[in-house]
Design a protein that fits this description.
With 256 residues, the chain is an alpha+beta fold. The protein has 2 domains: 85 residues, lambda repressor-like DNA-binding domains (434 Repressor (Amino-terminal Domain), Orthogonal Bundle), CATH 1.10.260; 150 residues, Beta-Lactamase. It is 47% helix and 12% strand. The protein has 13 helices and 5 strands. It has a 5-stranded antiparallel sheet with strand order 2-1-5-4-3. Strand 1 and strand 2 form a beta hairpin. The longest helix is centred in the C-terminal third of the chain and has 16 residues.
Length: 256
């Protein structure tokens, strides 16, 4: 069952994805970017009225089959497809959903402690739930004693993050797009809702990026840092989720 917030978010997301797709045939000047609603409806084999209603956040019944066709028509990535199904309140047979739990699993803590390079664990709201000494040294402004431990709040509001991360804005925006892939699975978590509302007030960059509706999967790659004491550092980032608790993440940074 969807609530109004989910319906509104779903409509905003579908419209944003529709407007990024180029039409099959150029038709001269157009009032709106991307596909028209009737063009998307034709691609997905759904009614134009149904497409308009769902974008308007109205209460409509969407079957998993119709959502799957819509996901294909919008050329969604796996992360975007999962977000679509979560907002629609439907289960994608190819992406079974796991229920979040209240505490970090012991396996996550054990892995973080066993690693000598920077490593930390994130819960469903992207709060740091455990970390090792190497991570605390690298991210002193985030994981230091007495610090606020939410990763998004650190990146978007802590001045030291802009110094530590050389390409700060690009990486901050990417981080938020990765977070949004998880957000669709945690709409019922009041911590997540409160976090987003607070960050929209505290950071103009966050507010703009949130409204852009970007969704991507969390991927690895080289991450550079300008540490105030250790100088320029480069790590290959790897992210894992425990099989028994997929709502948590282990992030390990291996020297590149």
């Amino acid at each position: 069952m969807q609530d109004q917030e989910q319906r509104t978010l779903l409509g905003q997301f579908i419209r944003a994805r529709r407007e990024r797709i180029a039409p099959d045939v150029a038709t001269g000047r157009r009032r709106t970017p991307g596909l028209r609603r009737e063009e998307l409806a034709a691609r997905a084999g759904i009614g134009t009225t149904w497409c308009a209603w769902i974008e308007q956040g109205r209460e409509v019944s969407a079957s998993p089959e119709a959502l799957a066709r819509l996901a294909v028509a919008l050329a969604l990535t796996p992360a975007e497809r999962a977000y679509l199904f979560e907002l629609a309140g439907r289960r994608d047979p190819d992406a079974p959903r796991s229920e979040p739990g209240p505490e970090a699993p012991a396996s996550l803590r054990a892995m973080v402690e066993a690693l000598s390079h920077p490593a930390y664990g994130l819960d469903g709201a992207w709060n740091a739930c455990c970390w090792n000494g190497a991570a605390a040294r690298l991210f002193d402004g985030w994981l230091g004693e007495g610090r606020q431990k939410n990763l998004l709040r650190y990146v978007f509001t802590e001045p030291s993050a802009r110094v530590l991360i050389p390409d700060w804005e690009d990486r901050a925006v990417r981080l938020l797009a990765e977070f949004r892939a998880d957000f669709g699975r945690s709409l019922g978590d009041p911590r997540t809702r409160a976090l987003i509302d607070r960050l929209r007030d505290e950071s103009d960059v966050f507010a703009r990026a949130w409204n852009a509706q970007a969704v991507i999967a969390r991927e690895g790659g080289v991450r550079t840092f300008a540490h105030p004491e250790d100088g320029l550092l480069a790590f290959a980032q790897h992210t894992f989720s425990p099989a028994d608790r997929p709502d948590y993440k282990l992030v390990a940074l291996i020297p590149a």
